[in-house]
Amino acid sequence: MDSRYLKSLIAVVECGSIADAARNEGLTAAAVSQRVQALERELGVELLSRAGHAARATEACTALLPRARGIVREVALLAGDADARGLTGTLRIGAISTALTGLLPGALRQLTRDAPQLRPAIVPGTSRSLYQALLAAELDAAILVAPPFALPRAWQAQPLRQEELVLLAPRGWRGNVAALLRHHPYIRYDPHAWGARPAQLYLDDHGLQPAVLCDLDALETIAMLVADGVGVSLVPRWGGIDKLASGCRMHAIDAPDPGRYRRQVVLLSASQAERPRMLQLLQQALQDGA
């Protein structure tokens, strides 16, 4: 059985259609379809249920997907096993949006220089979705906000950044932090996001209940809305905020405990990683640029 055929089947299931899977794989739709049919003949079961342009996994396909993913993953690791340095192959890295523009660019340049045979595969997402992807073994590591709960012993979190809380307001709006929050629309960092907890903690500590205009789990968009005069917001001072918030006033939030209102960004990975040397290099590159 050719592991590439399993890879194509997984792509169809994840994309929802043969055409989309073919585009992702760089193949023709006919080639992907032939691969799936070859698997069906070899296994003696129907793997896909086709309706129009859509393709869905059958019950038999769903049952074998975990093992198929494991086989594809093990085959992908072979090249790294043959490299004495352990720096050949693909490293799947999840990243929250602010890390994509803040921490990652410099780290990727360093990785490319230090390990030319390493191929980073970047997966964007929220902290919650990236954590779930790690648990499902879909990622090797993720840059995300530190989870608001104790991690299982099988996982480790390496601190990367402590981001202070700031109030963003349009340049022409005057007043202290409390006045700005009381008298202007509040663009709230989505309270369900892990990184939004410091902002809500600050509001609770000071008895502030601003008029919420909307909730957003997109800090870059929040900064642009504030710069356009839509409202004010409490956000962490992530790397790269100065470029996006150039049209804003930025007020630092003071606290007796310096860490009380800070967002912690970490590199999360398995304690027993499949590619420890790659992760060590990634961690060093991220810390150098943090």
List the helices and strands and how they pair.
Layout: H1 3-15, H2 18-25, H3 29-43, E1 48-51, E2 54-57, H4 59-81, E3 89-95, H5 97-101, H6 104-114, E4 118-124, H7 127-135, E5 141-145, E6 155-163, E7 165-170, H8 177-183, E8 186-189, H9 197-205, E9 212-216, H10 219-227, E10 233-236, H11 241-244, E11 248-252, E12 263-270, H12 276-289
Parallel strand pairs: 3-4, 3-5, 8-9
Antiparallel strand pairs: 1-2, 5-12, 6-12, 7-10, 7-11
Helix proportion? 40-55%
Cα Rg: 23 Å
Q: How confident is the prediction overall: mean pLDDT?
A: 91
Task: Classify the beta-strand content into a percent band.
Answer: 15-25%
Task: Choose one word for the global shape.
Answer: elongated
User: Strand count, sense and closure of the main sheet?
Assistant: 5 strands, mixed
How many angstroms separate the termini?
A: 45 Å
What is the H/E string? HHHEEHEHHEHEEEHEHEHEHEEH
Strand order of the largest sheet: 4-3-5-12-6
- Residue ranges: pLDDT <50 for 5 or more in a row? none
- Secondary structure: number of strands: 12
Separate helix tally: 12
Structural class: alpha/beta
Walkthrough of the structure:
The chain has 290 residues and is an alpha/beta fold. Helix content is 44%, strand content 23%. It has helices at 3-15, 18-25, 29-43, 59-81, 97-101, 104-114, 127-135, 177-183, 197-205, 219-227, 241-244, 276-289, and strands at 48-51, 54-57, 89-95, 118-124, 141-145, 155-163, 165-170, 186-189, 212-216, 233-236, 248-252, 263-270. The strands form four sheets. The chain has a five-stranded mixed beta sheet, sandwiched between helices. A three-stranded antiparallel beta sheet has the order 10-7-11. Strands 1-2 form a two-stranded antiparallel sheet. β8 (186-189), α9 and β9 (212-216) form a beta-alpha-beta unit. It starts with a helix and ends with a helix.
